[in-house]
Amino acid sequence: MTADNEQAIRALIGAALATAQRGDARAAREMLEEAQRSHPLDLNIKLNLAAVRRNLNDFKGALTTLDTILSMDPYHFLALLSKGALLEQMDSRRQAAVIYRNALKLAPPEDMTPPALAEPIRRARAVVAEQAEALRHHLRDRLGGLLQEHAGQALARFEESLDVLAGTARVYNAEPVQLHIPRLPAIPFFDRDYFPWLPQLEAATDIIRAELMTLLDEGMPGFAPYVQYPPGTPENQFAALNNSRSWSSLWLWKDGKPQREPLARCPRTAAVLEEIPMADQPGFAPTAVFSALAPHTRIPPHTGSTNSRLLVHLPLVLPGKAGFRVGNDAREWKMGEAWVFDDTIEHEAWNDADETRVIMIFDTWNPLLSAAERELISALLREHSQWLGHLPSPGLA
After folding, report:
1. Which of 102, 158, 366, 370 has the smallest CB count inside 10 Å?
2. In sequence order, what are the residues at sequence separation of 6 or more whose Cβ sits closer than 8 angstroms to the Cβ of residue 186?
3. Who contacts 282 (Cβ-Cβ below 8 Å, separation ≥6)?
């Protein structure tokens, strides 16, 4: 299309919209219909024609026009958004939610959304959420008898699948930032039966907590910001926490190396960890750390390095409301109770209390790996690191 044609079309649309603003929507419709006959492939004319037809309560005509646009361009964001709004106005909210959901996949980022689209997009999100919740309740109600019949059985993954189908939950997969082991299931929180040593760890909570409290009373010596990106590193979601003591840590083991001074300050904790089968990946694991989160601080959603190992959380200081989410599963810590989770699934934490929350974190092997796989994974990580120059090669000074 030449520049002259584009200018002529803009002039036709502008004249029609000016006519509509003067209150003569019928004349505006005729002008746009005439423009459409002259320029049958122009989608902007059709989009404005659909809007004028909708204002004239010609819903059928408006819907036909929007469907014509979408037959020519199935990814036309404004046509999808307009179709959703039209279906909503026609009291077809379920169908509107389906169209809105497709439109939202194409929506611009919030910081790039034109002001005129902010409210329509907000409305689309509201309708999608409302209908998802309505479908969730409908499905649970319809399946209530069958769910009751199987009460007591392990149904958590089925119930999550129902929520995903309804749209109130989303699919989370393992997304390691370093090493992905294929064919391992993405399990947010692992069953305790995989870790027969958990009761032993939990029984030592008071021992570990006593040594931690001594450190806290001394002003947290050795604690440093958990996130410390070198200059020039993209901070992304961690910009607010980079080099901030709002999320601070004291490493007992780091990248497979014992941290002598912290372990010397916490000898009984060190003894407990010696009895726990932590991950053994030279240069990478084990790691063990006291993690302190300041009041009213949130750790943003993120994923960990490899699904070959899992993380263990043991709560030590819980001053008030604090929570943790892995995938669709959100929980609150309880004193004396540890859990094991796959940190390569998106997770986040928050402390809404007025005082600092502290937990101990350490890693353990994914129990679904064989002994052979564990040995090979350790060797693989070591060789990869040497290739990148992060570790000295054997036999070199």
Report:
1. 370
2. 172, 173, 174, 307, 327, 342, 344, 345
3. 256, 378, 381, 382
Give the C-alpha distances (Å, rounded to integers) separating 122 from 119, 132, 169, 174: 5, 15, 19, 30
- Residue 139, both tokens: 């499905």
Q: How many CB atoms lie within 10 A of CB 11?
A: 11
Residue 120 neighbours by CB distance under 10 Å: 18
The pLDDT tens digits for 206-245 are: 999 999 999 999 999 999 999 998 888 887 899 999 999 9
Q: How confident is the model at residue 31 (pLDDT cuts 50, 70, 90)?
A: confident
Tokens of 370: 């064989």
- The token pair that represents 158 in the structure block: 């089925």
Task: Write phi, then psi, for 225 (nearest 5 degrees).
Answer: -55, 135
Ordered by where they begin, the domains of the chain are 3-135 (1.25.40.10), 192-388 (2.60.120.330)
Q: Which residue has the tokens 């959901």?
A: 101
Find tokens 């649970």 and name the residue: 140
* Site of tokens 């692992």: 190
Dist CA 51 CA 250 (whole Å)? 61
Distance, in Å, from the CA atom of 266 to the CA atom of 247, rounded to the nearest integer, reads: 21
Residues sharing a CB contact under 8 Å with residue 102, sequence separation 6 or more, in sequence order: 80
Q: Tell me how far the alpha carbon of residue 286 is from its chain's centroid.
A: 26
Residue 180 buriedness (CB in 10 A; 0-12 / 13-18 / 19+): middle
3-state secondary structure of 233: coil
Which alpha helices (DSSP H) does 283-353 contain, by range?
none
- pTM, entire model: 0.84
Instruction: Give the number of other Cβ atoms within 10 Å of residue 295's Cβ.
Output: 15
pLDDT in tens, 310-358: 999 999 999 999 999 999 999 999 999 999 999 999 999 999 999 999 9
DSSP per-residue codes, 151-199: TTS--HHHHHHHHHHHTSS-------SSB--TT----SB--GGG-TTHH
Phi, psi (5° rounding) for residue 142? -65, -30
